[in-house]
């Protein structure tokens, strides 16, 4: 595995899992798969980044204020916490997004770390070239994050065994995957990870 690779976990938060305010169907099913990826990246001492929605109580993103979604992932609430079974280590870099009440904040590239550094700048400072992306939801925040990563010039690999979609309309997740690959992202699963990483 090369030093220029990183894992990005997108929004695996309680409100996006079964029982949450905006649950992705079977959203918690990504957790065991992501933990397997996490173990691999931790073993190789490669950077791990995790984005989270971190909305204020009042935002145009929410239905009461003209947005499309019910209130979810409000700052400092249980729903905004990462899924309790997700094995993020203390070295994982947490990035928060959706804090601007005038913005939806779908993409992790709109997120900043505790020092205020944007994801793109952070990845470049770490020398990252290849970004492996999984999490929630395929058809919204994962898609937006992947497309922005490609715009920023990164090679992007979508972890298809570690993503789930909202599916507001049937087929949205498949369409999102097709859009990501049409822009240059590649799809992989864990069984292909070691071979791929050794080739990169």
A few lines on this structure:
By secondary structure, the chain is α/β, with parallel strands linked by helices. Helices cover 28% and strands 18% of the residues.
Overview of this protein structure:
There is one protein chain. The protein is of the alpha/beta class. It has a single domain, classed as Isochorismatase-like (Rossmann fold, 3-Layer(aba) Sandwich), CATH 3.40.50. 28% of the residues lie in helices and 18% in strands. The chain has 5 helices and 6 strands; from the N terminus they run βαββαβαβαβα. β1, α1 and β2 form a beta-alpha-beta unit. 44% of the residues are buried. The mean pLDDT is 95.
Helix count equals 5
Unreliable stretches (pLDDT < 50, length at least 5) are none
**SS content category:** alpha/beta
The CATH class name reads Alpha Beta
Radius of gyration computed on alpha carbons: 16 Å
Number of strands: 6
CATH fold group: Rossmann fold
Determine the strand fraction and express it as a percent band. Answer: 15-25%
Separation, N- and C-terminal Cα atoms:
8 Å
User: Biggest β-sheet, characterized?
Assistant: 6 strands, parallel
Portion in helices = 25-40%
Spatially, the strands of the biggest sheet line up as 3-2-1-4-5-6
CATH architecture: 3-Layer(aba) Sandwich
Q: List the helices and strands in order.
A: EHEEHEHEHEH
CATH H-level superfamily title? Isochorismatase-like
Mean pLDDT: 95
- Report the principal-axis shape: globular
How many individual domains?
A: 1
């Amino acid at each position: 595995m090369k030093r220029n690779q990183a894992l990005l976990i997108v929004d695996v938060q309680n409100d996006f899992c079964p029982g949450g305010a905006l649950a992705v169907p079977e959203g918690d099913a990504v957790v065991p798969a992501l933990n397997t990826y996490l173990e691999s990246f931790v073993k190789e001492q490669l950077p791990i980044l995790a984005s989270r929605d971190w909305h204020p109580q009042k935002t145009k993103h929410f239905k009461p204020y003209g947005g499309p979604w019910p209130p979810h992932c409000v700052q400092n609430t249980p729903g905004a916490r990462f899924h309790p079974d997700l094995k993020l280590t203390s070295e994982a870099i947490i990035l928060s997004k959706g804090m601007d009440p005038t913005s939806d904040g779908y993409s992790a590239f709109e997120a900043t770390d505790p020092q205020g550094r944007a994801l793109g700048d952070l990845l470049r400072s770490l020398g990252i070239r290849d970004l492996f992306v999984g999490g929630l939801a395929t058809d919204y925040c994962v898609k937006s994050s992947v497309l922005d990563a490609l715009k920023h010039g990164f090679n992007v690999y979508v972890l298809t065994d570690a993503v789930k979609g909202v599916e507001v309309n049937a087929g949205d997740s498949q369409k999102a995957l097709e859009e990501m690959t049409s822009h240059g992202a590649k799809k992989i699963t864990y069984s292909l990870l070691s071979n791929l990483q050794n080739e990169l």
